[in-house]
Amino acid sequence: MANAATSPDVAPPAMTVSKEVAIEISGMNKWYGEFHVLKNIDLTVNKGERIVVCGPSGSGKSTLIRCINALEKHQSGKIVVDGIELTSDLKKIDEIRRDVGMVFQHFNLFPHLTILENCTLAPIWVKKMPKKQANEIAMEYLTRVKIPEQANKYPGQLSGGQQQRVAIARSLCMSPNVMLFDEPTSALDPEMIKEVLDVMVDLAQSGMTMICVTHEMGFARQVANRVVFMDQGQIVESNAPEPFFTNPQHERTKLFLSQIL
Ligand code: ADP
Ligand code: MG
């Protein structure tokens, strides 16, 4: 039998989890008007963790990750990202947003800018990076997501899978410490899902701290170290992928898994 410790073919990818905390959410609540959308959320994410968040539509998954970079405001409890507590202090919100990349279901690229310009806009204007350096970094990330040849095209000229890979590259150009993904493959045609997941797997293996809302359970099994199940604004269950899928503890989790697997 091959020795797993010495054979590069079977060695596990370097996905180590640090003891340092990247995101700490405690006793967090959010309302939309009268509607209590997130209920007493506790979630601590250490550096290097890959968390997959799943749950029925309307359970609050998007709202939760949008709260982490202050796209939505929480009303009580605490959210701390890389040691910075999220309050209504705009300077802190800016700091956190620089640190946290976000990829949405619908790409959200700027249609009137080229792929390269989409990737360099924030580094140039937010980080005040010289244009030449921003271009070089953008080309590195476009190469990493395997579309450097598309740099001078516009988003409308690319397939959905390519646009989503640009969206990922664009986020990476800001050198985030944490990446949030909100159903990044659910608007894609099936044949394009893999090319985006491959990029996300690569990112996970590079040690990025990630929270991914996705129903791609193959991805969850491959890279997540923890799967979090939400229902009706609550975290119902949280476990490593293997026990989560093979031995879910709560009826709501069992029902959900029976519907999607
Ligand atoms: P998920 O991503 O799990 O599908 P969301 O976080 O998008 O869930 O939404 C959770 C609940 O909050 C849903 O009932 C949704 O209708 C409601 N909701 C989402 N955004 C808003 C908003 N801006 N105003 C009021 N209600 C909202
Ligand atoms: Mg959602």
From TrEMBL:
Gene3D superfamilies reported in the protein's UniProt record: P-loop containing nucleotide triphosphate hydrolases
Pfam entry (one): ABC_tran
Keyword ATP-binding among UniProt keywords: yes
Domain annotation ABC transporter: ranges: 23-257
Family membership noted in the UniProt record: Belongs to the ABC transporter superfamily.
InterPro entries in alphabetical order: AAA+_ATPase, ABC_ATPase_HisP-typ, ABC_transporter-like_ATP-bd, ABC_transporter-like_CS, MetN_ABC_transporter-like, P-loop_NTPase
High-level lineage: Bacteria, Pseudomonadati, Pseudomonadota, Alphaproteobacteria, Hyphomicrobiales
MF-aspect GO terms: ABC-type amino acid transporter activity; ATP binding; ATP hydrolysis activity
Name the record gives this protein: ABC transporter ATP-binding protein
Keywords: ATP-binding, Nucleotide-binding, Transport
